[in-house]
Specification:
By secondary structure, this protein is mainly β. It is built from four helices and 18 strands. The longest helix has 9 residues. The radius of gyration is 17 Å and the shape is globular. The two termini are 27 Å apart. The relative contact order is 0.26. Bound molecules: manganese (II) ion. The site of manganese (II) ion has 7 residues, from loops.
């Protein structure tokens, strides 16, 4: 019997299914773009002016990733847990300081994503100038669908929508992204050496709002696919990833 060098079991490799492939995509880092649709920036009370602003980012730990179809308990320490439906870019090649015109080279494909957020904590932390981690890096809060592989294709348009219990809550189009996919990859690559398996959540359109236990969320992005999530009671045990 081989003895493990580790005192306890290392975390499992997080991975996502790829449409039409047997192999799965191992996931590296989870990057999130902040306000990237004007109507959502306005509903957050922080409008964006592209001529003077730059995109900004936050991260979640890879351990917060769950696959579409999961049932995730309502998280602790919030009374206002929000849905944010987003296009996710899957990075498939290394890149650092990549020009926007060359950024498509880094794209492996796309997925649908949900960036679930403790909105009450986010606003409280924001207003005190504190980090967002407790609002954003929530266990089970980064939900991602299967990946559609479309190497080197910069998606520029397509309907994006989310319904809760069959009622549409968010509806927009990818052509309303303030910074498009190529611009985001280029800008993020100024800060990070991007690597295969990095996921970039590109921001949510307007219509974010609270969920409650028992809710069923279903999202769709034209040309990408669908995503679903069920909210379980607060004291439910999280599903094993
Ligand atoms: Mn978001």
């Amino acid at each position: 019997m081989t003895q493990s060098p580790y005192l306890w079991s290392p975390p499992p490799v997080r991975s996502l299914a790829i449409r039409g492939a047997d192999a799965r995509a191992p996931v590296n880092r989870l990057f999130f773009v902040g306000r990237n649709y004007h109507a959502h920036a306005a509903e957050m009370g922080r409008p964006v002016d592209r001529s003077v602003d730059r995109p900004f980012y936050f991260t979640k730990s890879p351990q917060s990733l769950v696959e579409s179809g999961a049932r995730v308990p309502y998280p602790p320490e919030t009374a206002n847990y929000h849905h944010e439906m987003e296009l996710v870019v899957v990075i498939g090649a290394r890149g650092f300081r990549v020009a926007a015109a060359e950024a498509s080279r880094l794209i492996y494909g796309y997925a649908c994503g949900l960036d679930m957020t403790r909105r009450d904590l986010q606003f409280a932390l924001r207003d005190k100038g504190r980090p967002w981690d407790l609002a954003k890096d929530v266990e089970g809060s980064a939900i991602v669908s299967e990946i559609i592989p479309v190497q080197a294709v910069a998606l520029e348009r397509g309907a994006i929508e989310l319904s809760v219990n069959g009622e549409i809550r968010q509806r927009s189009d990818l052509d309303k992204l303030i910074w498009n996919v190529r611009e985001l990859i280029a800008d993020l690559s100024l800060f990070y050496h991007l690597q295969p398996g990095d996921l970039v959540f590109t921001g949510t359109p307007e219509g974010v709002g609270p969920v409650k236990p028992g809710d069923v969320l279903e999202g769709r992005i034209e040309g990408v696919g669908t995503i679903s999530l069920s909210i379980a009671p607060a004291d439910a045990a999280p599903e094993a990833q």
